[in-house]
Amino acid sequence: MSASNHRHRATCLRGALLATLACALAACVTSETRPMPKVNPVQATTQIPEAELLDVGVHVFDANIPAAIKDDEEALAKKRIYPEVRSAEAGYLPGLLRATLESSGQWGAVRVVPDKAVVDVSVTGRILESTGAHLALVINVTDSTGRVWIRDKEYQGEADLGSYKTEASLEARDPFQNVYSEIANDMLAARTALTSAARRDIRRVASLRFAQEFAPAATGGYLATDGQGITRVVRLPADDDPVMERIERIRERDLAVIDTVSSYYANFGDKIESSYGNFRRVSQQEIEKEDRARASARTRTLLGAAAVLGSVLIPNQCSSGDYTCRNVQSAARTAGAVGGVAGIMSGIKKYSEAKVHAEALKELADTFRAEVTPQVVEVEGRTLKLTGTADEQYREWRELLHQIYLEDTGGTAAATPVATGPAPTPAPVSRNE
User: Fold this and answer.
1) What is the pLDDT of residues 46-77, one digit of tens each?
2) Residue 339 maps to a domain
3) Strands, E, within 275-409: which ranges?
4) Residue ranges of the chain with pLDDT lower than 50?
């Protein structure tokens, strides 16, 4: 082989190595942002009969902080879980679902409720992932009869980046509104699949279940549960039943407290909406930068290593007496090695940048924590601390309701416990609404 051919081959090898190095150093990540299709809750187009207008209780979500690492801040941060933020989200996100359901006009009263509240339709949720870039929830929906509408269904979505553009756009539409709309539309589909009679029974059963808590002896024969776990109405009380009249007054008080609890969560949501929205927006940006930095780091490190390896493995194409060819070949190896090391060092630098962005995200969470301190409200002369103890406070309130009922009835009406044993066979309902 001639010296010119040797030089040409060496030059080609050097050019290939330099091109590889250029690609490694560029490590460009391009993405095209397109408007995300919007999913909206289906709106009611006709008036729903009062007897079929179901009330919905959205329970505070399970924050789902892994017990195995709940005290390990570093491990939690790697999963992008910040306990104080996640705990705040457990109360904030149900409010967004409540607002979505309410906006559709398909339901009666929609509230964020404590665990023990008796409602027509109950919604529970667990947070799988919640960052500024991605939201994943597991949702369950059941009605007062025990019928399951939605069982352990996962709803997830990427953030609509259009919501992050300005403060106004963030206030106008939540970045994950599509997720809440999908849940609302699935709930509507489940309700639509029920007969008119089944929807009416849901309301009756909720009312009678509440009554059984206070006057089990007087109302024990009204409901029965079948083999499938579905509770049905066996018979209804008389229109002028004095026990039911008292319990109805008690329930009005209970609903007033639940309304207060729900309005608290609404106020809590209003208070943190701006700071939480900004937290999620910057969180999304930091996550994007971190992911890009990590991807770039991997690319630069791998290609840098490949360049070094390639320079070492360049075959000896020169004859023993062709010093010009040997010099060119040596220069190509040196360029590849130097460029490869530079690529590796650049990759290490990018990994450091990713760590900086992760730390910035943690600092954002720390800032947000300071704005979600526990709140205290007064309800009928009783102080409720509505954070993680809201359910306990509500249970205390229910005990007070029992005391009020006992005082009204002379302490005897609720003394008999609910009978246990096989459920009676359901009989036709004696009175229709």
Assistant:
1) 999 999 999 999 999 999 999 999 889 888 88
2) no
3) 376-379, 382-385
4) 10, 13, 17, 20-21, 23-32, 307-308, 344, 347-351, 353-354, 357-358, 361, 368, 372-373, 388, 413-433
d(CA 431, CA 209): 18
Q: What is the domain extent for residue 150?
A: 50-244
The residues pairing with 57 across neighbouring beta strands, listed in sequence order, are 111, 122
Q: Residue 185's Cα: distance from chain center in Å?
A: 17
β-pair partners for 136: 129, 156
8 A C-beta contact, residue 97 and residue 174? no
CB 187 within 8 A of CB 193: no
Q: What is the pTM of this model?
A: 0.71
Residue 252, in any domain of the structure: no
Between CA 100 and CA 182 the distance in angstroms is 10
Task: With residue 126 as reference, give the H or E element that holds it.
Answer: strand 121-130
- CA 273 to chain CA mean position, Å: 15
Q: Is residue 262 part of a domain?
A: no
Sign of CA dihedral 203, 206, 209, 211: negative
Crossing angle, helix 83-104 and helix 242-312, to 10 degrees?
120
Confidence (pLDDT) at 299? 54
Q: Where are the beta strands (DSSP E) in 14-171?
A: 56-59, 110-113, 121-130, 134-143, 148-158
**Which residue carries 């300005």 as its tokens?**
166
Kindly state the tokens that stand for 158.
Answer: 């990427």
Question: Beta strands 121-130 and 56-59: pairing type?
Answer: parallel
Instruction: Measure CA 274 to chain center.
Output: 18
CATH number at residue 211: 3.40.50
Q: Can you give the pLDDT at residue 281?
A: 85
Contact 302/356 with Cβ under 8 angstroms? no
In a domain, 334, yes or no: no
**What's the chain's length in residues?**
433
The number of domains in the chain is: 1
Which tokens hold the place of 293? 């930095």
